[in-house]
Design goal:
Blueprint: H1 3-7, H2 11-30, E1 35-38, E2 42-48, E3 58-63, E4 66-71, E5 76-81, E6 92-96, E7 100-106, H3 133-137, H4 141-158, H5 164-179, H6 194-198
Antiparallel strand pairs: 1-2, 2-7, 3-4, 4-5, 6-7
Length: 205
């Protein structure tokens, strides 16, 4: 369902749609052979293996945009491509209780959510995700404002809506248009050129 169709629903219909999507998403995630969680800066993945497994018998390869888990000289247990790159120097794995492979993936871009761990797997709705309040409150004012702005812009882009900068440009354009009704704004475009760029190319009066 696209955004326009969703907005046309009544509040009750939107709530029912959201509940249905949550149930579908939960079923898809439960069917995966691993469990995962994420914060803005990292992804944590847990993959169960046979009890009594030893780390030296495993071949775990973490790449910038992918992961593979296999038995040395044997079968591949888990493999896939990441939707985004990770920092190799800060991404690690360990074997817990001889039966659980725990993997920490440090995101290269610490300001966006991943819709899935592997591109082949079902996506989650990242527009519904928010960072832990404690994490945000730990940041200083400027950094927190920057993270919140990036999160907002990321959600807006995913929904095909204007970013915060584009919204500001639109507001400035509207005010300027109201002050100068004699000017032709039909060809004005809102883009990445800032407020000055938004007004470039207007015919002189």
């Amino acid at each position: 369902m696209d955004l326009a169709a969703y907005d046309a629903l009544s509040p009750a219909e939107q709530a029912a749609h959201d509940a249905s999507q949550r149930d579908k998403e939960a079923q898809e995630q439960a069917a995966l052979p691993y469990r995962w969680t994420q914060a803005l800066d990292h992804v944590a993945l847990n993959f169960p293996v046979e009890q009594g497994t030893k780390a030296k018998t495993l071949d775990v390869k973490i790449k910038k945009k992918g992961l593979s888990i296999a038995r040395k000289g044997g079968e591949v247990l888990l493999e896939g491509e990441f939707p985004k790159e990770v920092k190799l120097e800060d991404s690690v794995w360990s074997l817990e209780d001889s039966c659980l492979i725990s993997i920490h993936l440090e995101k290269s871009n610490a300001s966006e959510w991943w819709p899935h761990v592997f591109t082949k797997d079902p996506k989650i709705d990242t527009t519904k995700l928010t960072p832990e309040n404690s994490k945000l409150s730990d940041l200083d004012g400027d950094t927190r404002a920057m993270v919140e702005k990036m999160m907002f812009d990321n959600r807006q882009k995913q929904m095909g809506l204007p970013t915060s900068d584009e919204q500001k440009q639109q507001e400035i354009l509207k005010k300027f248009q109201a002050q100068h009704p004699e000017m032709d704004f039909s060809q004005a475009k809102i883009g990445g050129g800032g407020a000055a760029g938004a007004f470039g190319g207007f015919p002189s009066q």
